[in-house]
Amino acid sequence: MGQESAGIVTSNGASPPTYTTHKGMGLVNTAFSPEALLKLRYGNLGICHTRYSTTGISELQNCQPFVVDTLHGKIAVAHNGELVNAHALRKKVMRHGVGLSTGSDSELITQLLAFTPPMEELDSPDWVARIKNLMTETPTSYSLLVMFKDVIYAVRDPYGNRPLCIGRLVPISKLHTTGVGEEDTEGWVVSSESCSFQSIGAKYYREVLPGEIVQISRHGVKTLSVVPRPEGDLPAFCIFEYVYFARPDSIFEGQMVYTVRQRCGRQLAIEAPTDVDVVSTVPESATPAALGYAQQSGLPYIEVLCKNRYVGRTFIQPNTRLRQLGVAKKFGALTDNFAGKRVVLIDDSIVRGNTISPIIKLLKEAGATEVHIRVASPPIKFPCYMGINIPTKEELIANKPEFQDIAGYIGADSVKYLTVEGLVSAVQEGIASLQEKDNISSCNKSSRKVGHCTACLTGKYPVELEW
Amino acid sequence: MGQESAGIVTSNGASPPTYTTHKGMGLVNTAFSPEALLKLRYGNLGICHTRYSTTGISELQNCQPFVVDTLHGKIAVAHNGELVNAHALRKKVMRHGVGLSTGSDSELITQLLAFTPPMEELDSPDWVARIKNLMTETPTSYSLLVMFKDVIYAVRDPYGNRPLCIGRLVPISKLHTTGVGEEDTEGWVVSSESCSFQSIGAKYYREVLPGEIVQISRHGVKTLSVVPRPEGDLPAFCIFEYVYFARPDSIFEGQMVYTVRQRCGRQLAIEAPTDVDVVSTVPESATPAALGYAQQSGLPYIEVLCKNRYVGRTFIQPNTRLRQLGVAKKFGALTDNFAGKRVVLIDDSIVRGNTISPIIKLLKEAGATEVHIRVASPPIKFPCYMGINIPTKEELIANKPEFQDIAGYIGADSVKYLTVEGLVSAVQEGIASLQEKDNISSCNKSSRKVGHCTACLTGKYPVELEW
Amino acid sequence: MGQESAGIVTSNGASPPTYTTHKGMGLVNTAFSPEALLKLRYGNLGICHTRYSTTGISELQNCQPFVVDTLHGKIAVAHNGELVNAHALRKKVMRHGVGLSTGSDSELITQLLAFTPPMEELDSPDWVARIKNLMTETPTSYSLLVMFKDVIYAVRDPYGNRPLCIGRLVPISKLHTTGVGEEDTEGWVVSSESCSFQSIGAKYYREVLPGEIVQISRHGVKTLSVVPRPEGDLPAFCIFEYVYFARPDSIFEGQMVYTVRQRCGRQLAIEAPTDVDVVSTVPESATPAALGYAQQSGLPYIEVLCKNRYVGRTFIQPNTRLRQLGVAKKFGALTDNFAGKRVVLIDDSIVRGNTISPIIKLLKEAGATEVHIRVASPPIKFPCYMGINIPTKEELIANKPEFQDIAGYIGADSVKYLTVEGLVSAVQEGIASLQEKDNISSCNKSSRKVGHCTACLTGKYPVELEW
Amino acid sequence: MGQESAGIVTSNGASPPTYTTHKGMGLVNTAFSPEALLKLRYGNLGICHTRYSTTGISELQNCQPFVVDTLHGKIAVAHNGELVNAHALRKKVMRHGVGLSTGSDSELITQLLAFTPPMEELDSPDWVARIKNLMTETPTSYSLLVMFKDVIYAVRDPYGNRPLCIGRLVPISKLHTTGVGEEDTEGWVVSSESCSFQSIGAKYYREVLPGEIVQISRHGVKTLSVVPRPEGDLPAFCIFEYVYFARPDSIFEGQMVYTVRQRCGRQLAIEAPTDVDVVSTVPESATPAALGYAQQSGLPYIEVLCKNRYVGRTFIQPNTRLRQLGVAKKFGALTDNFAGKRVVLIDDSIVRGNTISPIIKLLKEAGATEVHIRVASPPIKFPCYMGINIPTKEELIANKPEFQDIAGYIGADSVKYLTVEGLVSAVQEGIASLQEKDNISSCNKSSRKVGHCTACLTGKYPVELEW
């Protein structure tokens, strides 16, 4: 999903293996020229990482995957998430006499994995033991890919905070009747978002479970271990992935994100109805919720804004100024659709209030008689320490004095939010019905516990934060 | 709209004027760095051009505006459209002893304007006479901006084939309550598409009429002349602008493009109904037609595809390979919304058939039981010689043998197109109702004749083509 | 010689011909990537131009060769020099109704050549007549290459102000014993400086004479005409080429530039002797003069400065600041060679005084007891209107009050210049001896008159300047 | 000296310090834009590194200085040279559980320095102890700069294999009478080559001695320790720096490189006289030797070649093809200077024979009757493992069968080399005379032993090589 930098490391799987690396700044198609991709093709396995800056600093040096040479050979690590106890772990590693060349968690993880207990045999590193050891050092938040020679380990933290799923590459002959079938197109892929599978001709296979260590090799996919959570703790999959971050065609916990958002819209229509003429959306991310709201309320769904092509996404730009700049130019008003009408506009979330305010102004200038805002998620009040780029507490609109009269502040006739309970039930309702229907893959079924991280909404973090 | 190159020329309006020029390749924000824009600000008038390659060759040298030095000083010309008799005009100009340094119509136009009849007084060029002379030399297709010292002439050919409209810059104080009001933000802007006004804080004022020569200067907007068409000829505004090319929030002939597309969808539902469960769209351009189809047919409207961010528009890339490459990666299937259902998918046009075929395949693989295609425009069968980048006759799907069984060819359960009559009535119905309501600006009102170029659909070109 | 931009146009020689053009900014190896060169190879003739900005503005648009389409097909023109009556010619061309898209003489020349008298037959342009007509319109200063289909015309103005010479490509088999001999490597090349021949495996053949129009085609090299000067006028080859501008291994008028510079150094030793310990040079351009001075005076020649690699030439940068910036970093002092000694330092010219002053300071700080400057050319006092980038009159050190005490101003113990008479005799002595020995090629021999443009030194321009 | 990449790290000297880093590919003025330099100015100390690839691979990741975060804060390391026992050290570091992210010696050195013995107090790292420890781990070859907070440690290995010297920044007011004097321009600089001092307005102060650890801080320059060599070992300063690598105005061991090269030329004239008409040089690096040869032999010195501007140095390009490509275009023949004469051409070294062969051919084609080659250094026969980019043993001309008839192979009339003894005496003669005159700074004086690494000539490496 990142648009700041991208990196790929491939291995030829030989012994010793040759790794080939390319990293570049910008979107994937900028970072990877055809020449760069060509040099990467000598390999039958590889890991990749795309990145949006969570710190405001984008440098090639911080670009993953991180590769280090160890006594046993090179390992490559790609990491999604943020270690909650990174600071303490850095101290520990440095106390051992290791210098860290970047501020990234990825390097920290590679050094923790490189660490060889003296008694260990040199020629047979026990990666499962090392990864399990890493997982005891840090509870969350991480989804990891670790490549070593001819094997990739896919790992998800015990709380399952960041997503990770496995797909199966389908031979080209089964996808495109005109294409040439080649055997070598079979294989396995792992990704944070299942939506990425379709574009490379792969099918969703299953999620990596919280705490699971999966080995992917020429022998297929195999669960090596499932590291448990402390007794009594529930999983803590990031609920914000459903609300905002994931692409709507992604699947988490067996359900499509789009469907969850549509349920949020229905729930919102129940919790916060309005007396208006039409329902509309802030395109495109709020559209499923808006359609859900329209279906539940019986109000007609129309479009009030069209997106200006060629303008990037608001969220993942590293500073406020860049986020604000695009807003005014982003949307065109479809005046004739709503002039003289009362509009309820569904948005997926209001983080800073920078985006929605000019939109309301735009609609009113263009003739809307009333503009009501319904937000298909609760107010964000707390920082995320687990890898989502949420602004500081002070920047969040829900923590500002203006929030007391948010409608007045953003110029709306009314503003209402979905409740935390409403959101959680909209999310978990689908999982419950799935489990009843028992149609998820056997490995995900049965005793699976359900739980979500709502820390940014409630301040209840899944683990105690160390400082 | 172009994404191949862009250029700006500003004038400081002095006597003699200083012109500042910047041209660059790529999208506007690539072509114009902040430094480039800074050097352009010394001026109170300017013209700009963005370009998509109509010939497959993108070179900076062909980038408009074209500036030439004449006996009276420099003129700058920006041109949208394509001169139907360019070949004969080039010969004429070269026979006069002029060498042409590019193959562009823009240079040809500047040389035609530079041409000084010997009797003319040196220090007072009669630009209206020169422009009128140009308009007698070539009937269509062009919308022109001609800048000379401190005046811009906005010109539309007598058939009004390409759009051109005028907007008024609103002082910033009236747009943003927190902004600082500065007097100098008042002014006039001219554009092919009215949708561009909103993003710079301007309001739609009116269209330039077919054949009209409008002078824009410090004294405001003034009609200098309206060059008539040959008696009996109707205007020939490009109907394809409504169907595909324009942004939906643009206004042509007093009506919003979105509304016209919605009417096309309604008309399509009348002409070509289907027995299915749901209506959907190929996002985003077909969405108004799909909503129109849903409203008329009473079928529920759902989304079946989500767009992959970061992938450019299909149409305006200069060759087939580039057009095809993006298709597979462009959309994600919203599986749960349509699995087990019969779908009618509305598209705005089918040019080559390259895009719709993999989409249908995708929907069927994801579980749609039937996929019917309804196209909200008639088949394109003929080349455009007036500036729209339509493929050659041979490349158009409607001229291929496969068109006889188009449904089979693209893998649909059925395919139906809007009729030419249906399209024309959907377009003109709105203009008629506007004229009845008499709420268009006085200059557009009254005796205005209505007519559209449907050459790409019918082969009936507005003027005889010279070769 | 230019380092600002470069362009190549090749022709495939067919009827009608296809021309392929590439232009780029920067040094030749920056401007021409391997890909760019590859696309240019489809042709058996071509013209090229490299350029240093004479106006301070470097834009791709002004980059030569200039190509225009005429009634008879495309012509391409590359031009070295500056038309003394460019202003009047521009007016004339524009009065004919031609718009000029650049301020360059090259475009002006192409438009003058494109100009078709109405009586002329369309299918057989008489290029010799056109070129002769051009030469009657403007006396100097130009060396031209005009390419049309399968012919190149090499033209030098009647005063021969700018150099132009012809070389013969030697088959590779005769140059490199290990290379494969291919017949197609035979051919002809034309260049401003003969030194360029060696690097492509060509041999010097002869100069193009003042006023000569040479046709180069598959049939070889043929003189079409020699346009005479007004009676009584001598040739006016730029003497500054000998003094500073040309590479020392170039040949003009039958003599090597290095030899002329060495003679200037000998003459300088006669005109301006010094009582010092050692002779040295400002590397590298003054070295031949310094060796000549050492030989004539009997003083030992040593090196006092080493050049810092990676810093470009001082002269051909478009503005003062860029010229100055490099000076301090350009040279390293070879302290041990001159500490405690009296030095006479030979320079080839002092244009602004910016370079020599810090060098003297550097030598004195490093221990030279005296530093005397001897300049192997007379003071430059007048601007050049014929294509050499000399600073404005006001910027020239010789026109500043400081010149009265130039030694004090630049910190030298004494400063003396070569006289104009001394320079002219050093230049012409070699030509005289050549003509006596009669060993120059027959076409250059016999009645050849000798004369040089010393306008920048004396203010006597070869033709009357029009304004 | 490098032209592949460059990096700078500055520290603001605060507690804790902020380090600012910029690295870039290419020559220094490419790698560092004005913007990049601007961001680096917040600091009063910094270290920098330029690099030419010794391995053929240039990547930003390998670009120095290397910065790592340690328990005590960040350290930055710049390194010139190559650790002879790098392989064993890497194993050792990795055995400790440290992953190495690059293959560079610099990272290895930082990790060795980061290594904290457990007993050490956390808040007071003893850098001298750590650096001394590093120096016991690896005998050679390295000159190091280690920056920590507000101190820079300048370190040279016990054998003094790579050069390192200290300069003093002179206040601008004392350098340029017109400049504004600012106090903050005083300070200290450290460099591999003293020639770099002049271009920034610094004066040579002294060398860092073999084994010396010098501390540079706000309190000035202070020797902390001098780590001794194993008893009986002499210093082993790279003799190739004198012969080829250093700039001629650099000072090593108290003598100017130019003077040493001139002495080599004189010695060569004694060892290998020739019966010819003129002496000349392969410009520019062989010129001092050629002048020395001319002085000793009494033969006249002339120039036979002029260098083509705009072509880079032959030696420091990473592969053979790039080295060869430039040769043909590099020189122009000054024909008239040597036609009909017998020439002895002095070269500084013959590494592969690629350069000299086409030059001889060129001179003969241009009329030289004989061309004798005298090389001012002995044949290179052995690889360097201490940081100089010498080709593999197989690529060296002196190890090829052709070397038996080297004159025939390169097309010369005779070829002779300076002897190893001749070279060593030419180098050490100057040091001896300096020590006699006792005019070197006190710290370099007295008991200083003299010794040079001639491994590439003799195969006698200063330390035993580990594999």
UniProtKB/TrEMBL annotation, chains A, B, C, D:
[4Fe-4S] cluster binds at C238, C384, C453, C456. The keyword Ribonucleoprotein does not apply. The lineage of its organism: Eukaryota, Metazoa, Chordata, Craniata, Vertebrata. One of its GO terms (molecular function) is amidophosphoribosyltransferase activity. It comes from Amphiprion ocellaris (Clown anemonefish). CDD domains: GPATase_N, PRTases_typeI. Binds 1 Mg(2+) ion per subunit. Pathway: Purine metabolism; IMP biosynthesis via de novo pathway; N(1)-(5-phospho-D-ribosyl)glycinamide from 5-phospho-alpha-D-ribose 1-diphosphate: step 1/2. InterPro entries: GATase_2_dom, Ntn_hydrolases_N, PRTase-like, PRTase_dom, PurF, PurF_N. In the C-terminal section; belongs to the purine/pyrimidine phosphoribosyltransferase family. Residues 1-219 form the Glutamine amidotransferase type-2 domain. This is Amidophosphoribosyltransferase. The gene is PPAT. Mg(2+) binds at S285, D347, D348. Keywords: 4Fe-4S, Glutamine amidotransferase, Glycosyltransferase, Iron, Iron-sulfur, Magnesium, Metal-binding, Purine biosynthesis, Transferase. One of its GO terms (biological process) is purine nucleotide biosynthetic process. Catalyzes the formation of phosphoribosylamine from phosphoribosylpyrophosphate (PRPP) and glutamine.
